[in-house]
Amino acid sequence: MDKDVRQELQSLPKTLAEDVAKNLVMVARLLDEDPEGAYGYSKVALRLASRVAAVREAAGFAAYATQKYAEALGEFRAARRMTGTVELWPVMADCERGLGRPEKALDMAGAPEVHKLDKAGQVEMRLVAAGARRDMGQLDAAIVTLQSPELASQSVQPWTARLRYAYADALLAAGREREAREWFAKAVEADRDSSTDASDRLAELDGVEFVDALAEEETSGVEDAEEAAEVDEADEAEEPGKPVESTEAVESTEAIESTEAVESDESGHVASPEAGDKD
Fold it and tell me: What 8-state DSSP symbol labels residue 112?
């Protein structure tokens, strides 16, 4: 847990602080993989310590991850009032986008608070502003918004891949495919922790189709099993060593025997059992 958060929790009774800390840890662990689960833990933490800024912030991010933008915005505002910092300004602006108010997000992008943000926060604000422009159908303005010294820089920062990816995506949306491919490739170079799907987008532009080898092996195994089952069923249908006599052959034999019996009876060569007893 972050040192500043631990310090905040020290204002609570020890047992309560431990319970709140456990819930905050679960929020952090589940936020990316299970947002709904994280949201549940954040609600518990809120019930326990709603006057702790770190709790309000965690609840805001959990609500944001589950697209509950109005709730997230309320929690972020509360956390900001408690701390007096501007760190949450970009995500608050993005909540405005989520609520269908891109104009409000753009207003926030031009507010004095932006100048108080660190470099990462300013880049984040630029990404939000470009997204708002796209929401309003202003693709060219979105592209211009992303053109910055941070985009042109050759150094790789934690936000570099996302910035290059957003620029490439905007170019592609504007029909500038060749430039988009170039920037997707640059995003791949900077994306050391696979925070984007830039490699997939690049492959798609190059017409490369990925094949899941494991899935193919599973499919092949199922087909082989089905073929083996069909062979077994065929073998069971035919019992080896037992000749199959055709119906025509049986009928022909019965007809011959019947004819011979009739002819013998008419010529008197075959006597009935009763005649033999009388002799």
Answer: G
- Per the CB < 8 A criterion, the answer to whether 167 and 142 are in contact is no
Q: How many residues does the chain have?
A: 279
Q: CB–CB of 75/63 below 8 Å?
A: yes
Q: How many CA atoms lie within 13 Å of 215's alpha carbon, on the beta-carbon side?
A: 3
Q: Tens of pLDDT along 110-143?
A: 999 999 999 999 999 999 999 999 999 999 999 9
Rg (alpha carbons) of the chain, rounded to whole number = 40
CB 94 within 8 A of CB 70: no
Return the amino acid letter for 225: A
CA neighbours closer than 13 Å in the CB half-sphere of residue 96: 22
CA atoms of 50 and 47, how far apart (whole Å): 6
The full set of domain ranges for the chain reads 1-85, 88-142, 147-214
How far apart CA 125 and CA 119 sit, in angstroms, is: 10
Architecture of domain 1-85: Alpha Horseshoe (1.25)
User: Distance (Å, rounded) from C-alpha 223 to C-alpha 275?
Assistant: 72
Give pLDDT tens digits for 246-256: 444 444 444 44
- pTM across the whole model: 0.73
> Which stretch of 96-100, 163-167, 185-189, 214-218 has the lowest confidence by average pLDDT?
214-218
Three-class secondary structure of residue 72 per DSSP: helix
